[in-house]
Amino acid sequence: MVDTKNAEIYNALIKSARKIGILAEKEALEADKNAILSENVINLIKEEGIHRLILPESYGHPQIDFKIYTDLIRTVGYYNLSAAWLTYFYSLHNSWTTFLPKHRMDEIINEGGLLADIFAPVGSVEKVEGGYLLSGKWNFVSGINYSSWVAVGAVREVNGVPDRICLCMRVSDLQLVQEWNSIGLRGSGSNTLIADNLFVPEDLVFSHMEVAMGQAFNPTIEEDYLYKYAPFFPAFFVGFPAMSLGAAERVLDEFKERTKKRVRMDGTNEGQSPKSQRVLAELTLKYKAANGLMNEYIQMLESRSNAHHPAEYNAIRVKIVQYCVDIAVKATLTLGASALIKGHPLEMITRDLIAVGAHITSLYEDGIDHYGKTLFDVETFCIG
């Protein structure tokens, strides 16, 4: 439930989300073919101010809560998951600027461009005076075609100990390779970046481990900033289950409406069939279970405590995504071959949800393994 204070903000953002989602759905086949959303959708995200949503209050933007944020993402996801993916990322990625010195925050934020990131620590760095020389290749950099700045991951050594770091730079200083060709989330335009001995100043670098420990924020950031008072990485990943729930809700609506209109070869209406009625009942209950887990996840984030192990967040998240994948697959298999036609809503949603489930933060076996270990007090590495 959104309180009265935030109701006006909430209603405005949901209205924006619907506009973005509806436009993206209209262009879904084109985006699928081109492996990138059109500038029409990207410009609408910017026109609605969504790309500046997750900024500190001192930059003139209202502070929202996780309920508002996740409902925004899931609303776009109801219409198109690639658009939800980028709506989420283009707003979320403002959060990493808060780990930089104030003058760098001002530089990046005041330019008003879109931000991308890829935290996989696959880059190599050499320490030089004033910064680092960076080389590497990063795949799956979502939305990079439209981004001005990007943060990428690498590993440095501090007193002989490996430290994961993120280095921030202008996209124009890197080589962009257009090679995104996936089964799902094709409109995310998750292309490849290459750096070759690129100099990155020290004040554009921050430590991943310090982020995980809550020690990386610029001291000027307000205490009530959304990504400061919650455990950072569980908060950072909150959009993946949210967009999945939006897509799963659309699946249920599509399944119900198409089943009511479906006539079998013997002339019977499938909406009157106990088989499809039972399927819809089971899928609806699964959706309700996933939605309940989402509510619990948000409550955990907003408790402003460190009472929950990162693996618990991870497990809840992967379970929500898995439920949503299951809903889409079962609905598709029950509707039959017509749901496999290219461009059918269930065909696209199922592919996209599989792609969400294959993201490193949504891998089901990994998430359940981490959580099971913690339940038996076995040490496991999980950032959330």
What's the short version?
GO terms for molecular function: acyl-CoA dehydrogenase activity; flavin adenine dinucleotide binding; monooxygenase activity. This protein is an alpha+beta fold and 384 residues long. It is built from 14 helices and seven strands.
Distinctive features:
384 residues, alpha+beta, Butyryl-Coa Dehydrogenase, subunit A, domain 1, Butyryl-CoA Dehydrogenase, subunit A, domain 2, Butyryl-CoA Dehydrogenase, subunit A, domain 3, 3 domains, 7-stranded mixed beta sheet, 14 helices, 50% helix, 17% strand, globular
Polypeptide structure, described:
- The protein has 384 residues and is an alpha+beta fold.
- The two termini are 25 Å apart.
- The protein has helices at residues 4-26, 28-34, 39-47, 66-79, 81-92, 102-111, 208-212, 226-229, 232-236, 239-260, 274-302, 310-335, 345-358, 364-375; strands at residues 114-128, 131-141, 147-158, 161-170, 175-177, 191-201, 205-207.
- The chain has three domains: 4-96, Butyryl-Coa Dehydrogenase, subunit A, domain 1 (Orthogonal Bundle), CATH 1.10.540; 114-212, Butyryl-CoA Dehydrogenase, subunit A, domain 2, CATH 2.40.110.10; 232-375, Butyryl-CoA Dehydrogenase, subunit A, domain 3 (Up-down Bundle), CATH 1.20.140.
- The longest helix is centred in the C-terminal third of the chain and has 29 residues, at 274-302.
- A seven-stranded mixed β-sheet has the order 5-6-2-1-3-4-7.
- The protein is globular.
